Every structure is written in C-alpha cells, then in structure tokens.
User: Fold 5,6-dimethylbenzimidazole synthase from Sedimenticola selenatireducens.
Amino acid sequence: MENQTNIHQHDHQFSDAERQAVYKSIYSRRDVRGQFKPDPIPDEVLARILQAAHHAPSVGFMQPWNFLLIKSQQVKQQVHDLFKKANHEAGEMFEQETQRQIYSTLKLEGILESPINLVVTCDRERAGPVVIGRTHDMAMDVYSSVCAVQNLWLAARAEGLGVGWVSIFDRLELKKLLQLPTQVTPVAYLCIGYVEHFFVEPELKTAGWLDRLPLQDLVFFDQWENSHAEHEEKLVKYLSQAAY
Amino acid sequence: MENQTNIHQHDHQFSDAERQAVYKSIYSRRDVRGQFKPDPIPDEVLARILQAAHHAPSVGFMQPWNFLLIKSQQVKQQVHDLFKKANHEAGEMFEQETQRQIYSTLKLEGILESPINLVVTCDRERAGPVVIGRTHDMAMDVYSSVCAVQNLWLAARAEGLGVGWVSIFDRLELKKLLQLPTQVTPVAYLCIGYVEHFFVEPELKTAGWLDRLPLQDLVFFDQWENSHAEHEEKLVKYLSQAAY
Assistant:
C-alpha cells in the first residue's frame, strides 16, 4: 500500500485562493429550475463535468454509475408528462390550503428548456454480489451515485452551468420509460444548461417556505443532543457565524 | 421568484484558476483509511467544513442532517468494536479464497487514529410528513445527507484534511450505540484528520482489486446502451481521454 509512486508529492496543499474557489462552488451552487438558456454545452465542457462525476468516491471502487444523456425532445416530452402527472399528485398531498397554494406556484423543473437532461443511475450488480463496504449496508452503492451527482453539480457550477435535480416522478414509470434493466436504479434526473443568472439563495428560502437552519443547533458532541460540550465553546461560536 | 436582490450580480463566473481548483479537489480527494496524524483540527477549519456540508442541496430545503462529532476515545473504541465484528463477517462473504486473502490485508478504517469521527445523519421527520420533492421517492432526504458528505469531503481535501467513509457496521447496532432517535438514520461514519500524504490513486485500484472503468463505456445517448450516437463522436473522444 505504501507504494511511493502512488503518493502525491506535488500539489498536496491547496493555496488560499484554491481553497476559496472550492468554497465558492459549494456556496454559489443552486438547484436551478428556470433561467435555462438554450445555448449548447460544448463537448469539452460536458466531458469535464462527466469526468468529475466519474471521479466520485464509490464503495469498493465499484463505480456503479451510468450517465444517460438526453437531448431528444421526444424523450424529454415523455419524461415531462411523467413529471406533470406526479406533480399533480404531489400538490394534493399537502395538508394546508396555503401550502397547496404555494406549491402550485413553484417551478420545480426545467426538463424541456434545458439543453441536456442527464440520468445518473446505479447498477446494483456492477461488481458482483459481494462488494467491499456494501456487505452491511446495501444502499452504499446508491450513495456512491449520489456522490457522483454532487461532484458533477459543483464542477458544473464552476463551468457556469446550472443543474436542477428533478425527483417528482413515479420511479418505476421513469425506469420503464428509459428502458433501464432490472438491476439499474435511476438515482437522479438532472436538467443542465447555461443560465441567465444564479440566485444568491435557495428559491424555497426566498419563497418563505423554509429558512436555513442554524448550523450550531445541528452539531452534537460525542452524544446525541449534546450541543454544548465542555471546551467546545469556540467551535460553537464559529458555527454560529455566517459562512460567507 | 425573480427577486432582483436574490440574483448573483458579482462572482457569477469562475476564473480558469478557480475552475481548476474545483477539479483539483475532485481529482485529489481520496478515501483515507490510514496515514492519519494525531494533530488537532483547528475549530475554524472544522467549522468551515461543517458549513460546507450544511450548504449541500436538500430536497424541499429540509436540511435533514445532523453532525455528531466524536472525539471521545471511549465512544471510538465502542464503534471500532462494532467495525471489527462486522468486518470479520464481511471477510467471510467473499467466494474466492484469493479475495478473502486480499480482503484480510486491507485497512478499511481509521476510527481510532483519526482525531475526529463524524456521523452524518438524516432525520426523516425534519420537515413533516410531506416534503417537496420527496413525495414520490422517500429516499431523497437520505440522498441530501449524502450530498452533505460529499461537500464536506471536497472542502476537507482543500483544507488538507483526509476523510474516510466507514460503512462496515451493523447499522442498527451503530444506531443503538449512538443512541439515535427512531426517525434518525446514520448515513455516513467519517474519520477525519490531517494526513502524512494523499495517494494519487484509489487504494483498491493500486491493490489490483478493480480498475477504473473507461468513462466512454458508461455514457449513453437518449436510450439505454446507445453509446455511439450520431454527431457524438467528438464527445466520446473527449470522454476517452484521461481526465488530468
């Protein structure tokens, strides 16, 4: 394991500017539902964000993902029909009339307007039945595909591309429509494209649906619900400060 | 929604150097199991990577995560005991003797050596029973917590911190040990600390367990298994080139 040639001798450290750039991608990333421009995405750029996804961590190095790129307007329309059906069902699920009212005004996808739709999947059988690290939690492979989504999302933001994750589908109908094999799960349906602008804040925050939770309330020490451990006052103070 | 004050007027674009820094974090991130140094992590740094996690995308903006920081050697030891038990079971699951042999030589966690262990959880009831975007896929909240893990992992890499995800536990026993409430799922158990060095390649690749898959074989166009669509030759060429 301690193979010398496999050790990062150079570039181990990030400069302050490089570190800031990573945080910039994290803080300025948005879930984009509108504002898509029809401009095509150059192949080099598309290849780069797919490579970023492909370099996500994966349990047992199984790399369970595939990337189904959808440009066909016909396929997009069929997927949009599935969304519309599920979204109507979703709107009815909220108990309060005000919630149903707000829900109906929300734009939750950009399937037809974004130049590229991308399905990130998980092949549960990619590396055989027994996978290192998946032996005691069979969901770990799906989590690997989610990590690929997040890598792609941050890379896309750095490329000036907006990404929106659409999850309001009957998954079985989506799987059937896309003709995915039995062992392949559709993990994320993404809409990708250049955008008019990025919002500063999540749209659901701006819409007054929910506020950002105070981070210091979400951090516990050694035991569940122990939020004010001895000697941790300084960390709690930092957590309570705005991130940027 | 088109609230002008919520639009990024500045900093919309990333410079080439900023973009490269994001890719650097993605490509040089490793799943660290050994090489941890005991050096404490400054509170400012720890707060920054937790803020990065907290700014992950979350379904319906529900922010379902908590962060349980474990420094107690006693708790770490109890968790390590759970790992040992599960890892022994795991080793027995591989069919081939050579696989069992290799498995037994792999170091798969740094629970006791890393100064901080961090449990990232998902509170399934954080935002009530009906959540925007979770109506048709109840796993979406867990995926949000996974996105938080990946944000933290990349931020940690930019801070020079190694992170390892340990998944070889009986999850119910882990949940009981950590006294998590019924509705809270432990999504990721992470070991975090400064490291002697980062490996250039994933350790399972170096060990000859699995190779990195050719990305161009994983990308399909409009239809499952359609890997050579018309007019996509240029993209396929880019996909087949090394990422870095």
